[in-house]
Amino acid sequence: MTDRTNTQAPAGPAPAGDRAPESREPEAQAPPAAPAPAGPPPSEVDEEFSAAAPPHPAAKGTGETSFGDAEAPPAAERREEAKREPDKAAEYLELAKRTQADFENYRKRMARENAAAVGRGVTKLAKELLPALDHLEIALKAAEAHAPSDGGSDDVVRGFAMVRDELVTALGRVGIEAFSPRGEAFDPSLHEAMAQHPVEGAESGTVVEVYQAGYRIDGTVLRPARVVVAQ
């Protein structure tokens, strides 16, 4: 008997229908995404982005100012401005001249006013001193008339004369001078007639006697001379 050896064919791949299902690990799933926050509408986002976006560096008028950004004025405008410049210079020069002339006139006016104020002060003081000087003159004449023949009072007379001379010199330093018009023609602007009578050998209208000397200050009569006039 023939031994039948159960030869088995090598195992091949199982048919598809007979394949055992492969065991697969479950895939990890990503957590659900969080809902996006509510934002402005797309139009507003675009506007904000466009407002915040920096300008293009090559755009005109952006970044640092360059000579290319500056526009030169038209030639006609430049010519008009060049014509106006000499007129402005002449106007400013004329204004400076007027200002200088006004200041010079002001300075001269103030100098005249100051000199006039000083003159008024001197005149007022002299008018107060002249009566004292007149009395001193009268006292000196009286002392000379009553001086004894022995000469004992010569020192007193000389003292009166020295005081009178010092006063007259002080008045002369401020422009005040005395005048005695004896023998001159009567002038009502310089003389005050105290009396008038006929005098032998004297022409009518001539000053024959001076009661009180007159005084001038810088050519202006401070006090007229009191005189007697021949008739």
Describe the structure.
- The structure is a single chain.
- The protein is α+β, with helices and mostly antiparallel strands.
- It has a domain at 175-231: Nucleotide Exchange Factor Grpe, Chain A, domain 2.
- It has 3 helices and 6 strands.
- Helix 2 runs antiparallel to helix 3 (154-173).
- The radius of gyration is 64 Å and the shape is elongated.
- The termini are far apart.
Strand arrangement, major sheet: 1-4-5
Q: Distance between termini? A: 220 Å
Query: Which term fits the overall shape?
Result: elongated
Order of helices and strands: HHHEEEEEE
DSSP helical segment count: 3
> What is the CATH T-level topology of the domain at 175-231?
Nucleotide Exchange Factor Grpe, Chain A, domain 2
Low-confidence stretches: 1-23, 42-52
* Helical amount: 40-55%
Strand content: 5-15%
Largest sheet: 3 strands, antiparallel
Indicate the radius of gyration in whole angstroms. 64 Å
- The secondary structure category is alpha+beta
pLDDT average, as an integer?
74
What is the total tally of β strands?
6
Q: Key features?
A:
3 helices; three-stranded mixed beta sheet; single chain; 13% strand; disordered N terminus; 231 residues; Nucleotide Exchange Factor Grpe, Chain A, domain 2; alpha+beta; three-stranded antiparallel beta sheet; 44% helix; elongated
